[in-house]
Amino acid sequence: MIGLLLKDFYIVRQYMKTVLFMLAFFALISAGLDNPATFFEAFIIFMSMMVTITSFSYDALAKWDYYALSLPVSRKEIVASKYLLSVILCFGGTIISFLISAVILKFKPMEAFGVKEHLYATGAIISITFFFLAILLPLIFKFGVEKCRLLLIAIFAAPTAAMVALSKMGVSMPSEASLIAFIKLLPVLVIPFFLLSFFISVRIFSGKEI
Predict the structure, then answer these.
(1) CA–CA gap between residue 148 and residue 64 (Å, rounded)
(2) Are 197 and 135 in contact (CB under 8 A)?
(3) Helical packing angle, 75-107 and 36-61, nearest 10°
(4) How far apart are CA 180 and CA 161, in angstroms?
(5) Least enclosed by CB within 10 Å: which of 17, 22, 73, 184?
(6) pTM of the predicted structure, to 2 decimals
(7) Mapping DSSP to helix (H, G, I), strand (E, B) and coil, where does residue 85 land?
(8) Which residues partner with 110 through β-bridges?
């Protein structure tokens, strides 16, 4: 398992230069926003998720699955290494982004957005990220990362489209108290969903002919 993780970390470090460049670019863009801290935090966590997905692209180019199945590791361990990679990268990105956002808020404070609100925002972003990963990873194991690129766009676009549609229909947005209650409930919903996603991916990959 450790060897599989190290392989992924060695591979994605090539992609990190691109991530750092995008990070600097979006840091400049976010400076003019009303809430640059939350935008910057969401971007870092989102990119952490994308690094996980990119690791599948590198594996496909190198035909890694053919070689991996000749090693003394089970298919379940191969799947578990990808899920563990996503957890490490996303939580690592969350910690880094939270600290950077805290510094941003120190120099550019926002009214009614203190430490508690910052924690709520961080919890919501990381929970939503794992929700998307729970949907995407089984699809990638089933169809491959290249075939899932359009699905990736659709999965991210669907919530935005739904919110715009509801807004145009005159549906009122939930109150602040309702949003906070939902954010507190998110981890309770996302954790079992993420675990279910893992077992689905194991079943898909175990029955897949390479």
Answers:
(1) 18
(2) yes
(3) 160
(4) 22
(5) 17
(6) 0.83
(7) helix
(8) 113
Q: Tell whether the torsion through CA atoms of 24, 43, 83 and 64 is positive or negative.
A: negative
Residue ranges per structural domain of the chain: 2-206
Residue whose tokens read 């690094």? 51
Lookup result for tokens 């976010």:
30
Phi, psi of 209 (to 5 degrees): -90, 125
User: Residue 1, exposed/middle/buried by CB under 10 A (0-12, 13-18, 19+)?
Assistant: exposed
pLDDT in tens, 150-163: 777 776 666 666 66
CA proximity to 210, closest of 8, 67, 11: 67
pLDDT mean across residues, the chain: 80
Rounded to a whole number, what is the largest CA-CA distance in the chain? Answer: 58
Q: Which of 103, 14, 101 is nearest to 54 (CA)?
A: 14
> Tell me, what DSSP letter sits at residue 171?
P
pLDDT tens-place string over residues 101-126: 777 777 776 766 667 777 888 888 88
Paired with 113 in beta bridges are: 110
